[in-house]
Amino acid sequence: MFQLNNFLNNQNMKVIDQKGPFRVFEHEKDLSVHPASAVTAYFSSEMNVRKRQVFVELQNRGCITQAGAMQWMLGNVNMETGVKGVGNFLGKMASAAVTKESAIKPIYRGNGVMMLEPTYKHIILMDVSEWGSVVLDDGLFLACEDSLQQKTVARSNLSSAVLGNEGLFNLSLMGNGIAVLESPVPKEELIEFNLENDVVKIDGNMAIAWSGSLEFTVEKSGKSLLGSAVSGEGLVNVYRGTGKILMAPTA
Questions:
Q1: Residue 53 falls within a domain, yes or no?
Q2: Residue 171 forms part of a structural domain
Q3: Separation between Cα atoms, residue 51 and residue 119, nearest integer Å
Q4: Is 201:160 a contact under the CB 8 Å cutoff?
Q5: Phi and psi dihedrals of 42, rounded to 5?
């Protein structure tokens, strides 16, 4: 039995989103600033530059996080590494090296609550079942329910990695559960494309997440290399097929 005071009833902590076991808290103001940084803190708050934290309620559920993401936990909560042997550890190390994710993602299980470290990035809660499977841009993953499967996926061709500036490998999530993502822009700015046997062409690596069912290539913006060059667009990232894309237009 435990009590948690000055938290859920804290006037400076506002719940801005909630899905499954996750709640996203936003600090309305930074109350512990030094006089030298007070002006910066004030204008940061006015411009939506605020600390955000993810609160997790574990009721016989499991939560997988990036390494070092846990700030505190309360109750009967235990941490596991998820490593099942030397071979499994080496596989995780290899996957981390190519996806820029942490090699060991700890798993927290039990009955209790936990809080993740504060971040100035924007928190997106995603229901992965609505995507079937989703491929994430590097560094986007923060946490997820342990009901989700993680897989490292490779590009179907080398051009999408070398020319698309997206990397040769990415983390993919699939199954039923909620994922927590750290986005460079707020959810209100994200554009969602829903494709049905269609195509989206994006100039630059603006897509932060896309359905695993989509084919990703890099192609000329025009019919010829010369035409693409003189148009000023050059090469574009092309997503083709049936699925969804989340794009950050201002990042």
A1: yes
A2: yes
A3: 5
A4: no
A5: -65, -50
Query: CA gyration radius for the chain?
Result: 20
Inside any domain, residue 36 = no
List the beta bridge partners of residue 195. 243
Range of the domain at 154: 13-29+47-247
Q: Does position 98 have pLDDT exceeding 80, yes or no? A: no
In a domain, 40, yes or no: no
Amino acid sitting at position 106 = P
- CATH number, position 63: 3.60.160.10
The answer to whether the beta carbons of residues 63 and 78 sit under 8 Å apart is: no
Q: Identify the residue whose tokens are 């955000």.
A: 52
Interval 119-128: pLDDT, tens: 999 999 999 9
Using one digit for the tens of pLDDT, what is the confidence trace for 41-85? 889 988 989 999 999 999 888 999 999 999 999 999 999 986 554
Please write the tens of the pLDDT for every residue from 148-199: 999 988 765 555 555 555 557 789 999 999 999 999 999 999 999 999 999 9
Written as one string, the DSSP assignment of 116-157 is: EPPBSSEEEEEEGGGTSEEEE-TT-EEEEETTSEEEEEE-SS
**CA atoms lying within 13 Å on the CB side of residue 51:** 14
Q: How many domains does the chain have?
A: 1
